[in-house]
Amino acid sequence: MSEQHETEPAAAPAATATAPDAGTAAPGGPGGRRPLTGSLIIQAVTEGHSAVITILAVFVALMIGAVLIVASDPVVLRAWDSFSYAPATALSATWNSVAAAYSALFEGAIFSPATVSAAFHGGSIAAIFYPLSLTAFEATPLILTGLSVALCFRAGMFNIGAAGQWIGGALVATWLGYAVNLPIVLHAIVCIIGAFIGGAVIGWIVGELKARTGAHEVILTIMLNYVMYNLLSFLLTSHNLMQAPGQTNAIAPNIAGNAMLPHVGGPPPQVGVGFLIALAAAAATAWLLSRSTLGFEFRAVGASPSAARSAGINVERVWVLAFLIAGGLAGLSAGTIVQGQTAPLTFNSYGTYGFDGITVALLGRARPLGVVLAALLFGALNAGGTVMEAATGVPFDVVDVIKGLIVLFVAAPPLIRLLFRLRRGGGAGPQAVTSQGWSG
Amino acid sequence: MKLELRGITKRFGSLVANDHIDLVVQPGEIRALLGENGAGKTTLMNVLYGLVQPDEGEILLDDKPVAIHSPRDAIRAGIGMVHQHFMLVPVFTVAENVTLGTEPVHGLATPAFSLGGARIRSFRLPSFGLLDRRRAHREVRELSERFGLRVNPEAMVEDLPVGVQQRVEIIKALLRDARVLVLDEPTAVLTPGETEDLFRIMRELREGGRSIIFISHKLKEVQAIADNITVIRRGQVVGERPPSTSSTELASLMVGRSVQLRVSKEPAQPADVVLDVQHLSVHGERGEHSVRDVSFQVRAGEILGVAGVQGNGQTELCEALMGLRPSTGSVHLDGTDLSHASTRARLYAGIGYVPEDRSEDGLVADFSVADNLILDVYHRPPYASGIALNLDAIQESAVKRVEEYDVRTTSVQTPAGTLSGGNQQKVVVAREMGRDARLLIVSQPTRGLDVGSIEFVHKRVVAQRDAGAAVLIVSSELDEIYALADRIAVMYEGQIVAFVPPSIEEQELGLLMAGLGAATDGGAEPPGEPQVPVPEQP
Amino acid sequence: MTALVGTVRAPVTISRRYLAAGTFIGLGLINIFVFGFFAHRGDAVFALSLPGATPHVPPIRTPGAVTAYVAGAISIGLGVLRAVADLPRWGKRLSIAVVLLCFLVALLSWADAGNSVGSLEVVDLLQGTVTASIPLVLGALAGLLGERAGVINIAIEGQLLTGAFTAAAVASVTGGVWYGLLGGSLAGGLLGALLAIFAIMFLADQIIVGVVLNVIALGLTDYLNNRVMGPYASTFNTGNTFGTFKIPVLGNIPIIGPVFFDSNVFLYITYALILVIQIGLFSTRWGLRVRAVGEHPTAADTVGIRVLWTRYRNVILGGLVAGIGGAYLTVGNVGFFTPDISSGFGYIALAAMIFGRWTPLGSVAAALLFGFSFQLQTELSVLRVPVSSFILLMAPYVATIIAVAGLVGRVRPPAADGKPYVKA
After folding, report:
1. pTM for the full model?
2. Chains with ≥3 Cβ pairs under 8 A against B?
3. Residues B280, B238: one domain?
4. I want to staple A169 with a disulfide (CB 3.0 to 4.6 A). Which of A334, C55, C276, C305 is the partner?
């Protein structure tokens, strides 16, 4: 703090982009590294470090989710109708409903105590890990689309087009899957590379348009999404294109068994190779961003395109490359689904992977590790949500709302700080992932 | 109206920007607040204008305390301020800017008349706030004529030269009946001729009983216009002096030690031509010509200073030389044609570039000092091997350079944006001068810096020259041009109107900067027709 | 020496002149080599009156292929002109309009040349265009109310969606479509308030908040649609709509009448809003202050304008307007709410706003364009044009991309757009 204001604060209170957290000056003189001590952890909690913000955001979202759960439970609603003469019943009904729902969520996503005790009585140990494997399975495509969006964020751009890029990858992977015949391992590899390329091409279109014409990527990507939705439907309903023979619906042919990604480990639990690919991609992205010259360029352009340009960096080239790689990552996500599930490609296979990728990237503060953790959280919510719906009847949409709320709160740290009276931090919070208005 | 500030104190964190400041300004007095950049003058005026709330102290007008919590309160109390960075909306007209907040609207009213002995008064019909542009123009014209501040009410502010924009700001304050007028560094953007104009206006306003507070760090101007000088240093008032006080005394009060007002410099020993620019022109997006057919040469061991008021194409010239703007014409460095080269190619051909806006274009504020120091060479050994960065090498080199250039930072990993202005500039300088440059282009290198940093930068620039580099320095601070340049090129409206030696009188230089005066050697066509109404010079 | 110096050009952006000229020529070539070439033999018939309308305007018959060729030639000619000549601003705009018109005429000629199914119902097409553009115009107006004050509103999509949902639900429950309209508007306003709070008070990034609000809106309406509207459709989703209302005299003008003066109340509300906002923003004190806040909030603050209040107010007003747009999608149009009924209109409205350079009249022109491309798709599938409906559905979105990338170039938003205002 002492180095900060040797010149005066600006005469005019300049309107700046979302208020950044000032970096801390580390002790130890120039060249010193930050000591990792318990005091730092305490400091993080009391001063609103971003990880704490995230946890608190999750907590508040779960609270609001609880309200929705209660609202959709007719038993509880009836109990509240008679609140005036049986208040305890209403409260306990509420508690039971919420507890049942959230414990079902937990059991579906992490582990269920029942399986643990069953294991002790001769049941399968592997079954304990089944929920976790489901979580990993759900998280896999989200890790990749999350990385896709996060990479662009770091380069200063908003990739809303992960869905369209996903479709691009899905189309190529599917086609390679059924139209070509290759031996076992090779086929899978070719398909997954094809998925990357398919997504990369779509991403490249956006980057190139932005670089050459200055158009804003928010509109370009969203429009391209809709184009791709329709392209997918078109291809899947044309007999001589990608529609499965004999089908009247928009379904592609099944891809060859050789092209499927195998699982690791025997019958449940299983970790799909897709999950490992996702983790590898996260590691590669992390390395790219922090340890490579290309990543340096991405970050410089993201933080200050004008300074980067003045220092000789080719800003337009960075935009194109960022979108290219981001598109490829989204395409990989499609590959893990197309080659990881036996169901064929249909007109809405893209689901919510694209938009969930945005929320995962925001939650993960656009850092690869954060993205992985956030994707696992969302994966847990997805996996648990299905079980919750089956066990307690609470609709899955509640999970969607919880996801959205988490992100909304994470995008507004001052609100969380306000709610919990945390002081404005000196924690080295990463800059808000922003694009600076329409001029990019 | 008598203005008194009593015990004003303002802290920003651990920094005390204003430390129990007392100030009394009588009606009809021009008071100068003199201090270097960072001394606390602007903070004090922000307190007066309600932009900032003081931690202690009070403000009295005509011996009565007033509470000023916002600019609205200040305006109502009769205080007007012309900020260093104008508070004008560029895409609005002069009249719209001046009347903003008190816009005249169409006053539709029924007429008053008599009906059978009873008098029916006139009723105001709702006008839905429809702007009465004609009345606004009239009001602006009246004021501008009354005070001799000639402006065109219909002109768009962004098309106006900076000197005229300043007049708009003054009219804005006068429209609201300002009795105390605060001018914050007003001459930074004016030619010497325009500065004289401003002084004339100030004297006229003073005759009307108004008080004027004139904030500046320029000794000569302060001595020329002020009735009284208050010197501020590090947030405290360190003295009040009459304008007859010597410059040396004022300067040492300002800085707290004896100051070498001008860096000592050996005479230049120019050698071969390093930079050769021929017929360089830059066209803007809307067809305007920001740089018109500029030709000049800079030799090794020589400093060419480009003098001129900001906004005459200097920024565009520097950017064109660095390949940041498309241009026509040719640029040669040591004989190599760089006219179509990328920015990176030009940097590697041996050009160092210190841009005008260090926080926007010179540094990535979020990056560490170390990363900023390699912003131009991050992909070359030893900082990278292939695609992988060599973090240790980056760290080592950064530590060395930070020491060499005396950058005050607790760590090279600190984000550069948290450093003070002076230290930020040192980082940029360390990067650009550490590259064995053949040509150094520096634009407004000491803007907003404290005296110590200014000295440092000037010394380094001269050192580069003496080591054999060619230096092109662009500055709107005449003191800086006089201090450093071996040759001066005067730029006006995109053209170089004259090449003159540093022995030229400031009066004459001022005339050239304003587009007047005889042209001497080198590409001096008469200035092109002005595109907006230019006020006549007295 | 040369090894040090790469000869890559300075930044590779394409100047607007050549981009526009290239687009014109490209479209012209498509006119000739696609529409002209592939047109069936025979005439294209443009029916200019609705059957049974008085007075009846006779249809226009033109040979299909020839029309396309002529249109193509005009486009190419304009393209060359644009590349070599320095046109005044109105000339540039006029040329864009003419080229687009030529493209459409060529397209329609191809579609209907020798077509046995029917003639081109021009009035139908225009009518459909105007109504299809209503949510786009309202969305764009909502966007620019906020952006002119400096707040980016990406949540228009969410506002349309929640507006549509609320309108359908309220109209069904109360039985009154006007209540539905009101409810929809309020729902949009609520979302606007959320955006305002997060963006202005909590300084969150405006684009992110907008996208997140859209995601939440989608999730919430899907959830409520499944839980409430699905099972209880008879209560919550009865599909009421407004009746249409023809303006006397004006409604009888041939061609123009049925298009502009014979529709339900939403169109008239839209007219009113366009007028009010256009005049309001550029000729009143209110508008001047709003624009000051959007361009230079500090300057506005120093003359006593309440910056934050202005922003809150405008964003919420924008939400209310967008809510009306959403209400149109249900009670003004098809009646029933279906999931994702807004299908990207909110984003297209944003594009219209940008394309229209943040002015109401400009946004209207752009919205009409996009609305037309939607309507065209319906028209062409009626004519059994041999192109998959999915390809046709792509058209509006591709048109938006071309517009944003090709014809607009770098636009200039309000200077403080997207930047939260923080006092020292």
Report:
1. 0.80
2. A, C
3. no
4. A334
Are C205 and A433 within 8 A, CB to CB? yes
B268 inside domain: no
Contact A7 B422 (CB under 8 A): yes
State the residue range of the domain holding B240: 3-105+135-255
Which has the closest alpha carbon to A243: A25, B179, A235, B521?
Answer: A235
Across the interface, whether the CB atoms of C8 and B336 are under 8 A apart is answered no
What is the count of structural domains for chain B?
2
Angle between helices A217-236 and C345-355 (to 10 degrees): 140
Does residue A303 contact residue B364 with C-beta atoms inside 8 Å? yes
Residue-by-residue pLDDT tens, chain C, 424 positions:
222 222 223 344 566 677 778 888 888 888 888 787 777 777 777 777 776 666 677 777 888 788 888 888 888 888 888 888 877 878 887 888 788 888 878 877 887 777 777 777 777 888 888 988 999 999 999 999 999 999 999 899 999 999 999 999 898 888 888 899 999 999 999 999 999 998 888 777 787 788 878 888 887 888 788 777 777 777 777 777 777 777 777 777 777 777 788 788 899 999 999 999 999 999 988 999 999 999 999 889 888 888 999 999 999 999 999 999 999 999 888 888 888 888 888 988 988 888 788 999 989 988 998 888 888 888 777 777 777 778 888 887 887 788 777 655 556 778 888 778 876 4
What string of DSSP letters covers B478-512?
HHHHHHH-SEEEEEETTEEEEEE-TTS-HHHHHHH
CATH number of the domain within which A324 lies: 1.10.3470
Both B321 and B439 in one domain: the answer is: yes
Q: CATH 1.10.3470 residue ranges in chain C? A: 127-408
Residues 6+ apart with CB under 8 A from B531: B159, B288
Residue A263 φ/ψ, nearest 5 degrees: -105, 155
Are A8 and B42 a contacting pair at CB < 8 A? yes
Q: What is the least distance, in Å, from the CA of A294 to any CA of chain B?
A: 7
Does A252 reside within a domain? yes
Q: What CATH number does the domain containing B488 carry?
A: 3.40.50.300
**B296 within some domain:** yes
Q: Is this complex scored with an ipTM above 0.85?
A: no
Question: How far apart are alpha carbons B298 and B272 in whole angstroms?
Answer: 9
CATH architecture of C127-408: Orthogonal Bundle (1.10)
Q: Which of A69, A382, A397, A405 to mutate to test the interface with C (most CBs of C within 10 A)?
A: A397
Please give the helix or strand (H or E) that residue A256 lies within, else none. none
Q: Are residues B237 and B289 in the same domain?
A: no
**Nearest by CB: C295 against B72, B89, B343:** B89
Inform me whether the C-beta atom of residue C292 falls under 8 Å from chain B C-beta atoms: yes
A214 touches chain B (CB under 8 A): no
Contacting residues of C for B91, CB less than 8 Å apart = 295, 415
